[in-house]
Amino acid sequence: MLPLLFLAGSPGPLELLVIFGVVLVLFGPRKLPGIARSIGRMLHELRKASDEFRSQVMSIEDASATPTDAVAEESAPSAADVPSPESTDAANAACDKEPGDSGGAS
Fold this sequence. Notes:
3 helices
């Protein structure tokens, strides 16, 4: 049960020193710079891919938000669509006439 306690938290300075010693013995001092360089490149590519993914998600969210705003603006009546009071009175007067009534005196 004691070895599992090592995995419980982040490694301390002693654990990091032991890990570095094991890696040094396994790979040797000549290969360590190449290994560190390849790990650095891998982390750089991972960060770049993460940033690209994040920017694509943000652009999709922005694009999905824009059409709903445009639809809301299109569905709202504009000043040209709203009838003026004069045209409303004329339409009401035309509706009040009976069919066959020419509007003049008979």
